[in-house]
Amino acid sequence: MGFIDDALYAQIKDHVPVLCVDILVVCGGKVLLLRRLNEPVKGHWWTPGGRVHKWERLAEAAVRKLREETGISIKESALSYQLGVVEAMYPEQGSHTPTVVFSVYLEQFPSVVMDSQNDLCLWWNGSKSDVRLHPYVTATIKLLGKGEWFDVVS
After folding, report:
1. Which of 40, 55, 62, 65 would disulfide-bridge 93, Cβ 3.0–4.6 Å?
2. Which residues contact 37 (CB under 8 A, 6 or more apart)?
3. Strands 95-106 and 20-27: what pairing?
4. Which pLDDT value is given to residue 25?
């Protein structure tokens, strides 16, 4: 995992929520989704993001997680302000994650180089027929606001 032994992390996760960040990457009217290889929600389409490290600012975590999971490097100034917080709870896995959501709008589609936690990426155009979204991801995308995306995920 990195900073904390996996066994200790499992104990911590059993007792306290784990703060996370997610990043909605938007380009050409499409949102970047990644298919997860790990639990919880293995096999579902998700947005880039993950845990915030101790002493790491939220925006720093968002930039780091985007780079680690997709190979996309941005400056903190490219992030929009915090769109909101979405909370996920998976009691069966002992996971409770309040997640601060950011967005970044890119002018051209970047090359995506995924880490070992994802196996596919998709620039999703909002069509209900081409991908089934987990309710958490639906709630996250709704933070982009009313209009095209809000209508798609309503």
Report:
1. 40
2. 116, 117, 118, 119
3. parallel
4. 96
